[in-house]
């Protein structure tokens, strides 16, 4: 038997526990109500995942639930915001209860780990499309922006580069001797929430790596009206990614592949000593516009772009 809209909402979404003092009213009324503590601003972001665009048809629903929330929490992390609550808009071709059970499990497990309340949403029928709006708190005037990098800043990133891209290649048929870690990075990214919050007051500019380092760092460069030089030898590449490059010669993959959900940020040399976040220094911000790559002393322009819809 298939559930209709209201019993479905009732069954899957109304039993969440509210854990955040900012949630005055959660699911059940026409709107949720949030109370924002003095001295904070509300950071708001939304991200959609569409079947056959962002994920393969038949993708594991538990992983989809996790990833949908993770990519949204990653945007909050990039601003230094602490996540508090989310809304969830689901467009489903049909009501598949076992699919929904697994999806909600993946979603709510991650929500619980970061004390994020699910406070509302919408449920409609149509082609499988998953949308989250995420809200977070950031101390007033102190959010990490894309527009505030300065010439001379060191460029850092958390974690490793290109593992999610390798995971995608493996899904597409590339044979890796050690596929597990790369597949996990692609299927179950971990948002860098603590790192983002710890960068407030230290980083000048910050972005999360969703569409590839070259393209995402490019947004910082454009909005800050600066350029940069990346140091190829400094890039944090896993052994699996290094093997992939050796096998295929495709050295630009880690610079262009998306879905890593690490943070890329800039810090002045004076403040670099105060950095408490585990991160690798990968380059430097320069006043000359454009992005360059220093490959063992040979500096070349890097014109690769990240993924863009409609292009
Ligand atoms: P309305 O028609 O007033 O928009 P709905 O009937 O769509 O309200 O939803 C009833 C309640 O259930 C609302 O509080 C809404 O936020 C919540 N809700 C609906 N779908 C979801 C969902 N997928 N996840 C979380 N909450 C949901
Ligand atoms: Mg509605």
Quaternary organization: single chain
Q: What is the averaged pLDDT score?
A: 95
Q: What's the CATH H-level superfamily name of the largest domain?
A: PurM-like C-terminal domain
State the separation between the terminal residues, measured CA to CA: 42 Å
Note the run of SSEs as H and E: HEEEHEHEEEHHHEHEHHEEEE
| Number of strand elements | 13
Helix content: 25-40%
Number of helices: 9
Number of individual domains? 2
- Poorly predicted spans: none
CATH class value of the largest domain: Alpha Beta
Task: Kindly identify the CATH topology of the largest domain.
Answer: Phosphoribosyl-aminoimidazole Synthetase, Chain A, domain 2
Strand content: 25-35%
What structural class do the secondary elements suggest?
Answer: alpha+beta
Question: What general outline do the C-alpha atoms trace?
Answer: globular
Task: Please tag this protein with its features.
13 strands, binds adenosine-5'-diphosphate, 7-stranded mixed sheet, 311 residues, 4-stranded mixed sheet, binds magnesium ion, 60s Ribosomal Protein L30, Chain: A, Phosphoribosyl-aminoimidazole Synthetase, Chain A, domain 2
Give structural notes:
- This protein has 311 residues and is an alpha+beta fold.
- It has 2 domains: 5-139, PurM-like, N-terminal domain (60s Ribosomal Protein L30, Chain: A), CATH 3.30.1330.10; 154-301, Phosphoribosyl-aminoimidazole Synthetase, Chain A, domain 2, CATH 3.90.650.10.
- The chain is built from 9 helices and 13 strands.
- It has a 7-stranded mixed beta sheet with strand order 8-10-7-11-9-12-13. It has a 4-stranded mixed beta sheet with strand order 3-6-4-5.
- Strand 1 (23-25) and strand 2 (33-34) form a beta hairpin.
- Helix 2 packs parallel to helix 3 and helix 4 (163-171) crosses helix 5.
- It is globular.
- The model has no long low-confidence stretch (mean pLDDT 95).
- Adenosine-5'-diphosphate (ADP) binds next to helix 1, strand 4 and strand 5.
């Amino acid at each position: 038997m298939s559930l209709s809209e209201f019993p479905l909402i009732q069954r899957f979404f109304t039993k969440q526990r509210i854990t955040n003092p900012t949630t005055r009213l959660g699911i059940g009324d026409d709107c949720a109500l949030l109370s924002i503590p003095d001295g904070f601003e509300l950071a708001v972001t939304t991200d959609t995942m569409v079947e056959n665009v962002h994920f393969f048809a038949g993708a594991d629903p538990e992983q989809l639930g996790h990833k949908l929330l993770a990519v949204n929490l990653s945007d909050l992390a990039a601003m230094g915001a602490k996540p508090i609550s989310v809304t969830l808009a689901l467009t489903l071709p049909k009501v598949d209860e076992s699919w929904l059970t697994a999806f909600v499990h993946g979603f709510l497990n991650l929500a619980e780990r970061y004390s994020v309340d699910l406070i509302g949403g919408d449920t409609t029928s149509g082609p499988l499309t998953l949308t989250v709006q995420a809200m977070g708190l950031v101390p007033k005037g102190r959010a990490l922006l894309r527009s505030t990098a300065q010439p001379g800043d060191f460029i850092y990133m958390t974690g490793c580069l290109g593992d999610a891209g390798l995971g995608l290649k493996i899904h597409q048929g590339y044979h890796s001797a050690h596929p597990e870690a790369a597949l996990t990075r692609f299927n179950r990214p971990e948002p860098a929430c603590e790192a983002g919050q710890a960068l407030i007051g230290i980083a000048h500019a910050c972005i999360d790596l969703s569409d590839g380092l070259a393209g995402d760092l490019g947004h910082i460069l454009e909005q800050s009206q600066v350029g940069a030089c990346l140091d190829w030898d400094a890039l944090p590449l896993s052994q699996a990614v290094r093997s992939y490059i050796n096998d295929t010669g495709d050295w630009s993959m880690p610079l262009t592949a998306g879905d890593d959900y690490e943070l890329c940020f800039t810090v002045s040399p004076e403040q670099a000593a105060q950095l408490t976040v585990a991160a690798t220094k990968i380059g430097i911000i320069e006043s000359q516009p454009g992005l360059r790559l220093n490959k063992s002393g040979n500096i070349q322009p890097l014109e690769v772009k990240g993924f863009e819809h409609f292009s």
